[in-house]
Amino acid sequence: MKTFQETKLDNGLRVITSPVPSDSITLLVLVGAGSRYETEDINGISHFIEHMFFKGAKRFKNTKEVSEAIDGVGGVFNAFTGKEYAGYYVKLAKENKKVAFDVVSDMLINPTFDPAEIDKERGVIMEELNMYQDTPMYQIGWDFEKVLFGNQPMGWDQIGTKQLIKSVTREQFQDYHRQLYSSDNTVISVAGNIEHQEILDLVNQYFQFQLTEKKRRWADFEGYEKEKRVIMQAKKTEQAHLCIGFPGYPTTHPDYFAEKLLSIALGGNMSSRMFLNVREAQGLCYYINSTIDDYSDCGHFSTNAGVDVKRIDQAVISIVKEYKELKNSPKIEAAELKKSKSYLYGKLVINLEDSQEVAHLIGKQALLGEGIKTLGDLHQLINAVTLEDIERVAMDIMDSSKMKLAYIGPERSQDSFEKLMTF
Known about the structure:
Helix content is about 45%, strand content about 20%.
């Protein structure tokens, strides 16, 4: 039985509703307007324009009016920009759903891009950039993607360059808005205790897109960086930050769930190999986790850790050793796989009790053309993974010749890392 309903309107706009037993609803609008759509000269515009939508439009003329409309009904609203899409959401009591549709439709369809507001927001985004650079625990993941993907849109930070932040113009915003914020490049995903037809009625009332077609396409994936293996930022820190990993699988890869379960067994929780062997047994780090990041046509498998600056080499050796043992022996055991399956499914169940998580899961799959998978579908795919699948994935991914490392911490040589990155 379907747990969602989808309608594609004549203008190409897709509307999806998902039932969640709750007194609140989430309206999420996803647009194919992430940083993969950028060229080098406008790297960062996808993120900057996300900020500008909150600065005033036709009906809600400034940030104060936008905020007061949502705050006035106790709602929660925000936005985010990824590499493949941007999202705008409001979560509020279901009886106030018209407020969400009114505000979000106005800001996305009728933005003013006031030059004075653009200039003020430059400072805000510059400080956001400074915040990330001052927080190595977050910055290290972006640095890893730089060394993994190289100089192409997949390897650029979503926040963009200082040059773009300082110089982007109203005309560039308007052009980008026309090219990507179109009806056929948008999915409206609503989750909560609602009826599909009432949401369609609200969409038809508020989301009066002109009949436009997406004019900009995202950059083709150019492959993984072949030459550079290490990227380093010398920074005076009390803790060194590492991200070590490999190219991985895209979301649609047939072994995607095997890769996901492998990452959980290796470093996905407090009973995983990385946590027990690197943190608990040796006391080398405070945080350590292994994860996958997946996109439509590429991805990566990596381990992040914040380590003792006096024992950086030992930490790298220990992380690489865990990778080596996955490729050689001992393999993931049946008990580990069972535990990883239970952990992954349990987290999904908890997350999907939240209307915001449901709206995002369903909306993202629809926007990116992945084919919508419900919780039941995901459960079947997780359960279908075998030990043989895990072994095949480990053999494929754990290739030391493709290993990459990002580092933020006290100055040291690149060669010292490269000597440790082999098995």
